[in-house]
Amino acid sequence: MSDVGVVDWHKFLVGVPLVAAPVTAPSFHQLDSVTNTYGKTTEDMKIIYTATANNVLAALNPKDGSIVLATLSGPGGATFRVFDGITGALRFEKCLHAPESGRHAEPLHLGTHVAFGPSGELYVLTEGHVVRRVDALTGIVHWTWASQDGLAILTNLVSTPSALFVVAFTRSSTTLSLHITVLEPQTGFVLRSQGVPSSVKHLHTYTVLSSSTFETNHPHVAWIENGLLRSFKLTVELDAKPAAVIFKRKMQRMAAYERILDLGLSLSGSTVAITDDGSATLLSLNRDNVEGIEVMAPANSNPEKDDEEITDSTWVGVLGEKAGEVIVGRVYWSHKINKIKVETLTSTPMTGAHPELNSAAFEIAFDTRTHGIIAHAALSCSTSILPSSLLFTTTSGTVQLWELGSNSRELWTREEALAAVVLSELVQLPEGQRNGGAVSRRDRESFFERLWRHVNDAKYLHGFIRRFLTGSYASTSVSASSASLTERFPIRDTFGLTQIIVAATVQGKIFGIDSGTGRIVWSRILGLGWAAEVGASVVPVKMFVFESEDATGDREAKGPEVIIVAQRRAENTLVDTVIFHIDALTGASATSSNPGIPQEDSNGLLQGFDIVPGPVVEAYLLSPPIDSPKKYATSVLLLDEFLQVYLYPSTPYTRATLRDLQPSLHFPLRTNADGVTRVLGHSIAPHHAGEYGAEGHDGERGFVAYATWTLGLPPDEVVRTMIPQIPGLVASLGKVLGNRTTLYKYLNPSLFILLTGPAPATVTMKKGRNCGLYVVDGVKGTVVYQVSLPTLPSKKKETGKESCDIKAALVENWLVYQYYDPDWAGAGLSKGWRLVSVELYEGSGIDEKTRSSDMTSFANDTIHVQAYEQAYVLPHAITAFAPTVTKFGITVKDLIVASRTHQIASIQRHLLNPRRPHRKITAQEQEEFLVSYEPVLAPDSRRVLSHIYEVANVQRIITSPTLLESTSLVFVYGLDMFLTRVAPSNTFDVLNENFNKVQLVLTVSGLALAIIFTKPMVQRKRLREKWYQ
Questions:
Q1: What is the mean pLDDT of residues 973-984?
Q2: What is the pLDDT of residue 907?
Q3: Please, is 429 exposed, middle or buried when counting C-beta atoms within 10 Å of its C-beta (0-12, 13-18, 19+)?
Q4: Which residues contact 42 (CB under 8 A, 6 or more apart)?
C-alpha cells in the first residue's frame, strides 16, 4: 500500500450534465442546516445538484467542485427512487410500472413529474397519464389515478392543502388545449375536471406558477396565445376564467411573446417570458393575478451595437436573500471583446409600490476555444459564505464555476467529457527533449555532430560519477511524472512510465493526459468544417498512432502523431468522413507540412481533412514491413461504402507501400444483404479511379476491395461484433512441459473473434444455446475454434441491451471469454457467470510442429489445431478485461478485469491455465507451476489494483508496454478514469529499492585494493617456494 496514489491515480467523474430539462440541469440549492455522519452541523450550506448523461445523480461542492455524492441510477419513469440529499444513500426504491410498458415521449422528461405535498407526502406522475400518492418515508403507494383520455398527456402536478391539480394538454389539429383535473389529496377522488379555453402552440410556451403561500397566492397556469400572455387561476371549483397578464409598467415596445422559460423560479411564483426581439418580462404571482414587468431590453437594442457582435442569450434566474426578491440574468458572448457578458437585474418587492429594480453587468474572460460554447448557465446569489457565482456547462462537456465581480475569476473547472470517452490510446514519448517543436534524434548525426554533442555532454560528467558512486538512479516507486510537473509538456522518463493518453470523447473534444499524474496536458475541440453553417456533430470512430515518422518514410525530428477518423453528421442528413491529424505531445495540428490540408480556423478549432464524401465502412493502419530495404511509410487505409480505397496521407511513399503490400492484404467486413448480416473476407485489387474519387494519383490506378470468402452461419444467428486479435511480440513459440516435451503455440496473426447472437425472429421461438463465438482466419475464412453459448434469461435483460452478453479477447494463442450460464443440468453445478480460458496449439498432439507463425494461411496445416479449454465460475460479472502487454512479450501475461462491484483486479495467468489437472498435481506438473483445478475463481483482495478507489461503469481496459519488460501500464476508463502499473512476473529487470550501491562499490574497491597489496606478497612467496624446493 506504500505505492497507493504514487504509481496510480484515479479521476472521479460524474458525467456531462443533462441541460435539456430544468429538473436535470445543474442548479444551486440552499441547505439551511446539515448534519454529517460525525454529528457536526453545518449552517448555510450550498450544493449543486445535477443529473448527468452517464445516469448519475450528483451533488457538487460549489467551493471547490469536489463531489459530495454521486449515485448511479436506473431507467427513469418506471422506477421511483428517493435519495438522501447529502450522502446520496438510497432511502427507498419503488417500481411503479414495467419499463417496457412505459410511453416514449419527446422530450424525455415529458409526462413525468413529482410534487411535494404540504405534509411531506409525494405525488408522482409517470407515463404521462398515471398519478400516484407515495409515502415519502416508506415508499407505500396510497392511491393511484389514471387518466381515461387517450388524447391527453399529463405534464404537471400542483399540490395545495385542499386539492391536487393535474395539468394536461389535449392535442387538436394544430394547437394544444389546456385541461385541468382536480383530485382530492387524501383519496385521489376526482373533484372536478374540465378544459380551459386556450390555444397553445408548443409546450415551451406555458408554465405553472405556484407559491408556498396558498392562502394569498393561488397557483396559476400561464401561457402564450397569439403572441400574448394569458393566465388561468387554479381553484378547487375551476370557476376562474382565462385572463390577460397585468403589466405594472407600460411596455416600451409592442412585441410578440414566443417562449416562457423555466429558470427554476416557478415554485416561488416567478418566471420569465421572452419576446421575439429578445426582451424579457418577469411574471410573478400577486394574489389572484399574474403580473408582469419588463426587466430587460434586447441585448442588441443599442444602435451602436451590430447584430453580429453577440450570440443568442442564455437566461438564468435565482431567488435573492430578501423575501420575494428575484434575480434574472442574461449571458451572451461578445465577439467584439471576446468575452462573456453577464447582465443581471434584481427585482425587490416594495410595499404599496412598484418593485425596485437594480441592474449589474459583469465580464468573464471565458476561453471558448478550449471549452466550447455555453449550453447552460446557473446563477447563485451572494451569501455570507460565497459571493455571487455563475456555473457554466458547455457543449464540450466542461463544467466551470466563476465568481462574479469587477474582476471575475475562475473558481474551478471539471472536464466531465472524460466520462464519455469513445476512443483512447497510450502514446509513448520519444527519446530526447523538445526543442522548437521537434524531438532531437541521433540516428542521422554525422561524426562531427556526434563529437560536438559528446563535448557538450561532458558538463554532466560529475553527475554521472556521483550517480555511479551513490547509486542515486531513477526509481520505479515514485511518480513517473514528478520531474515533469513543472514542464509544459511531459518528457520520457528513464523507464518509459510517462506516456500521453490521447482520449476522444463523444462531444468531439480530444484530450492529452499525462499518464503519470492524470493532469490534462492539452485539449482540442474538433471543428465542423463546412457543416458549421447548417449544424452538425463530429463522432470519432477510429484512432491510430503514428510513431516519429513522416509521410515520406524518413524518420525525421518529429514527435508521435495521432490520426483520428471521424464521421461528420450534418443536420441536413449528410454524412461524410473527416480525418484529424494531431501532434500527440502538444495537441497542435500535424498537417503543417501539407498546405492543402486545413489546420485551424479563426476560432482556434482543429479542422479536419475531408477524405471520403460519405460514411466509411472500415479503417486500418497500413504499416510497412520491419527492416524493409525499400522506403515505405505508414498510412491509414479507409474503405467507403463502395469498398473503394483511400489513403491518408496520400504520398508517393504511402502509395508505394499500398501497391507493394496489396497482394498480402486480407480483412473481414460485416455486410448486410437482404436484411441478413454476414461476414465476408476481402482483398484489394487495382482499378481505375472512379467517380467517387478512389485512391488514384497522376494517372495511377486506384484500388478497390472485393469479396474472397463468406462465413456460413446458422440461420438463427446474426453477426454482433468482430474483435481483432491483440497485436504484440511473441517471445516463445512453444511451452515446454514437465516431461521435456513441447506444445507449440498456434500463432496466426490473421485470427479474429466473431460474436453472434440470436436472430430477432428466434429470440422467443428458440431457447437455449444460440449465442455463438467463433475464432476465424481472416485470410480464407476458416473457423479455428467455435462454441455455442446460452442467451441471457429474460429477467436478466436490461432495457436496450442485447440478449448475448459475451466479452472476449485473443492474444497470441490465448483466448479468454465470459458469458452467463442460466442453468446447468449437471450435478453440483449452478447458474452464474463463467470465464473460459482457451489455449490453441499446433497439430493434434505433443511435439507436433506445423510452424504456424511462418506458414501461409492458404496451407492445409492451418486447420490442424488442438484446443485446451477450462471454465471457471466468477463471483461477479465482468464489464471489461484485457491481458497485459509488455515490450518484448517475455513477461507472463495476467488478465486485468473490471467487475460490476467497481473494482479493478488482476488474475494471474497460472490460475487460468486450461491444463490445470482435476486431481493432485504430479512432480512434473509442479515444474510447470500448475495447480489443481478449482472451479471458482475466488476474489483475492491482494490482487485488487484499485484498492480504495471505486471505478464505476468501466467500458474498456488498455494495457501498454513500458521500457521495462517487467512492467505494463493499465489504463481504465468508463464513468471514472484509473491508471496503475503492474508487474506480472515481478520487477526482475530492476534492482530492489533497498539495494546498497555504496556498500557494493566500497566492497569491490576494498577487494581491488587488497588484490593490489597482496599480489606482490604472493609473488614473493611463490618465488621463495621455488628456491627451497
A1: 94
A2: 94
A3: buried
A4: 33, 34, 35, 36
398 in Cβ contact with 410 (< 8 Å)? no
The Cα 473–Cα 475 span in angstroms is 6
Distances (CA, A) of 1022 to 1009, 1025, 1027, 1029: 20, 5, 9, 11
pLDDT tens per residue across span 858-887: 777 778 899 999 999 998 899 999 999 999
In whole angstroms, how far apart are CA 1024 and each of 724, 1010, 1018, 1020, 1027?
A: 78, 21, 10, 6, 5
- Residues 6 or more apart whose CB falls under 8 angstroms from that of 676 comprise 718
What is the DSSP-derived secondary structure letter of residue 555? -
Least Cα distance to 30 among 62, 67, 77, 72 occurs for: 62
Confidence of residue 795 (pLDDT cuts 50, 70, 90): low
Residue 504 has pLDDT above 60, yes or no: yes
**Is the pLDDT reported for residue 492 higher than 90?**
no
Which pLDDT belongs to residue 972? 96
Question: Residue type at 337?
Answer: I
Tell me how far apart the alpha carbons of residues 594 and 157 are, in angstroms, rounded to a whole number. 61
The dihedral sign for the CA sequence 433, 439, 444, 446:
negative
Residue-wise pLDDT tens digits, 584-597: 988 888 875 555 55
CA distance 1026 to 1018: 13
Residue-level pLDDT at 288: 78
Classified as helix, coil or strand, 653 is: helix
What are the backbone angles phi and psi of residue 907, rounded to the nearest 5°? Answer: -105, 125
Confidence bin at 693 (pLDDT 50/70/90): very low
Q: Looking only at Cα atoms, what is the longest distance across the chain?
A: 139
Strands annotated E in 843-887? 865-874, 878-883
State the average pLDDT over residues 747-768: 76
| Per-residue pLDDT at 721 | 92
Rounded CA Rg of the chain: 34
pLDDT, one tens digit per residue, over 562-576 is 999 999 999 888 999
Q: Where are the beta strands (DSSP E) in 53-163?
A: 56-60, 67-72, 79-83, 90-95, 113-116, 122-126, 130-134, 141-146, 152-159
Please check whether residue 61 is in contact with residue 70, taking contact to mean a CB–CB distance below 8 angstroms.
Answer: no
Give the whole-angstrom CA distance, residue 294 versus residue 328.
11
- What is the identity of the amino acid at 272? V
Report the amino acid identity of residue 335: H
Cell 385541461: give the residue.
Answer: 179
Of the candidates 785, 805, 803, 800, the one whose C-alpha atom is nearest the C-alpha of residue 716 is 803
Looking from the CA of 694 toward its CB, the CA atoms found within 13 Å total 21
CA distance linking residue 1007 with residue 1015, whole number of Å: 12
Cβ partners under 8 Å of residue 641, min gap 6: 614, 615, 617
Q: Quote the pLDDT of residue 440.
A: 46
Can you tell me which residue has the cell 618465488? 1023
- Bridge partners (DSSP) of residue 971 are 958, 979
| Burial status of residue 1022 (CB atoms within 10 A of its CB: 0-12, 13-18, 19 or more) | exposed
Q: What is the 3-state secondary structure (H, E, C) of 15-31?
A: CCECCCCCCCCCEEEEE
Q: Which of 321, 317, 309 is nearest to 270 (CA)?
A: 317
Beta strand pairing call for 771-777 and 783-789: antiparallel
As a whole-number percent, the residues of the chain with pLDDT over 70 amount to 83
**pLDDT per residue as tens digits for the range 260-312:** 988 888 888 889 998 888 888 888 887 778 888 877 777 665 544 544 477 88
Residue 416 pLDDT exceeds 80:
yes
Do the Cβ atoms of 770 and 791 come closer than 8 Å? Answer: yes
Instruction: Calculate helix-pair angle for 461-470, 997-1027, nearest 10 degrees.
Output: 80
DSSP 3-state of 141: strand
